[in-house]
């Protein structure tokens, strides 16, 4: 398709996606790395075929002993979130108005992105298993529940809402993995710090890709993108593990305790939420977008005022104090 220089008439997601698809295909190598150049979980974990294996495990367990209770809880929550990848992949393939041809830009992107993401849960799960601090059966029950429960994140099958959500989420996971890396280092677990660091940098690349999809869509369908952005922010961006639970407990309860722990540690806070929103507003130059229809203008006005409003709310939020005892963690 020819490059579009003018706005596409309203309601033509299909044309916009057809316009985006060659871009996805061509630019993919900018945001994803060739398989054999990538790090793999085995690069970080003790090698069971080596004589030193048991010594390496002992070292790993000694460092893991130093991690604070909240940090282990957050790490488990992060790991389960990563391991619910089949939910995210199937959700991405359900997006409407895109060409579902396996050789097309969208499906190729989804599969390559999934392939990169799959390493995250794999690495963290193996680390947690070896650490000796985790009740693996309880953690595995939570993972199975989360996969079964799925997600309810308010995007529907709309590509714009989907890319806005994924842009936000990839930035959020970048922040949280990066912070966990910092805390692990402080607690003396250098291996875990390195692992979370490399995962965080994957997330940052992914964020750039999804943000670029929206930047492109903004060029040709700004009002509709703006309205979709407003809608997602009004609904609030919920985390993909928002239905997380422990065995015998109601849906979503473990998630609340997990996010309290993240807030307490400063791994992911209400202020981070606002910072991510600000980054998206900057990236998509929301304030200076022109040629909007009435709904688009209203959406833009709402969005540019939102960070200040949210910061006032964040100020008034109370820090969750009590540490919750998870079934996931051995006492
Ligand atoms: Fe990830
Ligand atoms: Fe990610």
TrEMBL record:
Keyword Transmembrane helix: no
InterPro entries: Fatty_acid_desaturase-2 (IPR005067), Ferritin-like_SF (IPR009078), RNR-like (IPR012348)
Gene3D superfamilies membership: Ribonucleotide Reductase, subunit A (1.10.620.20)
Sorted UniProt keywords: Fatty acid biosynthesis, Fatty acid metabolism, Iron, Lipid biosynthesis, Lipid metabolism, Metal-binding, Oxidoreductase
Cofactors required: Fe(2+)
Assembly notes: Homodimer.
Entry's family note: Belongs to the fatty acid desaturase type 2 family.
Name assigned to this protein: Acyl-ACP desaturase
Organism: Parapedobacter defluvii
């Amino acid at each position: 398709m020819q490059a579009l220089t003018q706005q596409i008439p309203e309601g033509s997601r299909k044309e916009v996606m057809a316009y985006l698809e060659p871009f996805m295909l061509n630019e993919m190598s900018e945001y994803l790395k060739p398989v054999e150049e990538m790090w793999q979980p085995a690069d970080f974990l003790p090698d069971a075929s080596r004589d030193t294996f048991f010594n390496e495990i002992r070292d790993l367990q000694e460092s893991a002993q130093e991690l604070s209770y909240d940090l282990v809880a957050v790490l488990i929550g992060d790991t389960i979130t990563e391991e619910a990848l089949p939910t995210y992949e199937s959700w991405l393939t359900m997006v409407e108005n895109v060409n579902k041809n396996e050789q097309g830009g969208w499906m190729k992107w989804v599969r390559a992105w999934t392939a990169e993401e799959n390493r995250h849960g794999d690495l963290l799960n193996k680390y947690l298993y070896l650490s000796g601090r985790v009740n693996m059966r309880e953690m595995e029950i939570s993972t199975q529940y989360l996969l079964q429960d799925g997600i309810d994140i308010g995007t529907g099958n709309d590509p714009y809402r989907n890319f806005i959500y994924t842009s936000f989420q990839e930035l959020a996971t970048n922040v949280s993995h990066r912070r966990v890396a910092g805390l692990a280092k402080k607690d003396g677990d250098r291996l875990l710090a390195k692992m979370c660091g490399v995962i965080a940098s994957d997330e940052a690349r992914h964020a750039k890709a999804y943000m670029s999809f929206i930047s492109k869509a903004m060029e040709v369908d700004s009002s509709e993108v703006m309205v979709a952005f407003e809608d997602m922010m009004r609904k609030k961006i919920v985390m993909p593990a928002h239905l997380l639970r422990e065995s015998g407990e109601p849906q979503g309860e473990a998630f609340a305790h997990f996010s309290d722990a993240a807030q307490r540690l400063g791994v992911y806070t209400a202020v981070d939420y606002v910072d991510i929103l600000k980054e998206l507003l900057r990236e998509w130059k929301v304030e200076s977008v022109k040629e909007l229809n009435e709904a688009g203008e209203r959406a833009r006005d709402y969005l540019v005022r939102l960070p200040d409003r949210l910061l006032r709310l964040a100020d008034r939020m109370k820090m969750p104090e009590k540490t919750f005892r998870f079934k996931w963690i051995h006492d």
